[in-house]
Amino acid sequence: MNDLAGRVAIVTGAARGVGAAIVRDLIARGVRVVAADNGASIDGRTEDPALIAAFAAECGDAVVPLAQSVTAPGFADAAVALACERFGGLDIVVNNAAILRDAFLFKGNRADFEAVIATDLTAAFDLLRAATPVLRENAKQARGGEPYGWGRIVTIGSTAALYGNYGQGAYASAKAGLFGLMRIAALDMARSGVTSNMIAPFAASRVTETIVPATPAQAIYKAAALSIPPAPIGRFTSYLCSARAQHITGQVFGVRGRETFVFSQPRPLARATTAPDPSLDDLAALVDSQFAPHFTALETDLDAFSTTPVL
Ligand SMILES: NC(=O)c1ccc[n+]([C@@H]2O[C@H](COP(=O)([O-])OP(=O)(O)OC[C@H]3O[C@@H](n4cnc5c(N)ncnc54)[C@H](O)[C@@H]3O)[C@@H](O)[C@H]2O)c1
What we know:
binds nicotinamide-adenine-dinucleotide, about 40% helix, 8-stranded mixed sheet, about 15% strand, 11 helices
């Protein structure tokens, strides 16, 4: 059974890389897609609207292009309206568009930080703000029949937020914000049967090409990452959007070639009760003896994933 046929999706950052792989897998299953992409340079400073037009033309009637920036005023409402007018509704939202402006904290500037947050995080919130009323109404109207189980939100995150990496203060902050947004979407939309999950992808793209290895392990990571196709991320997105994943929500997955990961989420690992009015020595003794065994190593995502990918 192909339960995705006839569904309608909005995918941002759809013109290339991971976003294009997601669109390709969805349309192969009969999903129709509003493919949003302004053809941004990797730092978001320039745009090329021809890119998404060419990609949509290659995909055929199942894809309608939207070349507006996700940060443009009115973008989110326009994308939702386009899905409803052109394809008769909306079932799936994939927030994938992102830019990077890496800089060590001591060389960063506020304008670059805010540009990354605006594109990678605020625009994702705004699309959910515009789309979730439609997804809730779908549930009330039992779009697709009873029991309703179709609304899907997929957020493309990054291990840069879960581990951290040198100079990625803006990008990691935005992606960490997306983690919180993904969890809230899972909670706020649970009663409507709408699921919300995150995928941390690994694939060859412009993003991978920009990696400047800081350690031998990171050089190994980069060389391996440049060999990983984005198609498996598209496939896992389609799985999350299918009826088979109706019970999966609030989770963080990773997809790297044929490897699929589920990530832990921060929860207390240990609990200790202090004496009343503890001294700093008391706190030091408590932390060193009871918490230190649970500490998280200060390793980057590039170090952690420098193992050979399975392709
Ligand atoms: N490739 C990887 O290994 C990797 C690793 C971690 C996270 N990611 C994430 O995967 C997603 C896709 O990245 P990718 O690797 O395919 O990179 P990419 O740069 O090839 O794709 C990003 C797309 O987003 C578009 N975009 C950027 N700003 C936009 C805006 N304001 N409006 C509309 N579109 C905009 C770009 O034009 C581009 O087509 C991103 O969220 C990225 O952070 C990728």
